[in-house]
């Protein structure tokens, strides 16, 4: 009898979770992918309960995860766990835009270590987006800076991980120098006690382009022009040893741009910064 009541309770909780996510998604026109989301197990959750809840959550999370990678690009292997409170995270107040919740202002994306056995990198991503499978929208790099390609293009994470990245640059982040932009993100992170940072160029490009391949929507577009500066730096080809932050955006019908934005010391009306939060264990990039 107790087992029956527990089962009914679990189903009721799962139904409430689905309603809380699916109804707002329907109103906003958001897509509802079928994703094999993995949740971290707590001491009071059985394997069967966890699997059941995870299966239902995959139908409501607006995520680009292993199933989407498989459909459009290729196999990515095992998926790291999402936090057990992922539903609470997605339904929580957005730390950057008042009156909105995280699932409406962020992209939830799996950054894979490899696709079909090939280390994932900017170079590989550029090849994959030209000919996506499964009815995906094709695109390309409209501009791929030679310094970025030479120094960062082949770098790959040694393990897969999940990220949340804002769908646009943060308010007040344009027309600022790079150090001021980093400080802006750090202030938000400190004020909300949340681990936000600037995205890496691979993370930014992956989030923007995976969303486009599935939906056909160009975020960080070219009109008006919008770029996010990134954590990764490149050394300019002038031979003076100066380092410049990489930037991703300006997404036009011809594709997305990846470039270095000069010294980054001065502001630019195009260049803001995104907020990125890593949700699972991450590893350093390998060359």
Strand order of the largest sheet: 1-2-7-13-8
Number of strands: 14
Main beta-sheet annotation: 5 strands, mixed
The proportion of residues forming helix, as a percent range, comes to: 25-40%
Q: Low-confidence segments, ≥5 residues, pLDDT <50? A: 1-42, 263-267
What's the helix count? 9
Distance between the termini: 57 Å
The proportion of residues in beta strands is 15-25%
Shape: globular
Helix-strand makeup class: alpha+beta
Q: What is the ordering of alpha helices and beta strands?
A: HHEHHHEEEHEHEEHEHEEEEEE
- Mean pLDDT, nearest integer? 80
Structure description:
The protein is an alpha+beta fold and 287 residues long. It has one domain (2-286). Helix content is 34%, strand content 21%. It is built from nine helices and 14 strands. The protein has helices at 2-28, 47-57, 66-72, 86-91, 102-105, 122-128, 146-152, 178-192, 201-215, and strands at residues 63-64, 106-111, 114-115, 118-119, 141-144, 156-157, 161-166, 196-197, 227-235, 243-252, 255-260, 271-273, 276-278, 285-286. A five-stranded mixed β-sheet has the order 1-2-7-13-8. The protein has a five-stranded mixed β-sheet with strand order 5-11-10-9-12, sandwiched between helices. Strands 3-4 form a two-stranded antiparallel ribbon. A hairpin with a 2-residue loop joins strand 3 (114-115) and strand 4. It is globular. It starts with a helix and ends with a strand.
Give a brief rundown of this model.
The chain has 287 residues and is α+β, with helices and mostly antiparallel strands. The protein has helices at residues 2-28, 47-57, 66-72, 86-91, 102-105, 122-128, 146-152, 178-192, 201-215; strands at residues 63-64, 106-111, 114-115, 118-119, 141-144, 156-157, 161-166, 196-197, 227-235, 243-252, 255-260, 271-273, 276-278, 285-286. A 5-stranded mixed sheet has the order 1-2-7-13-8.
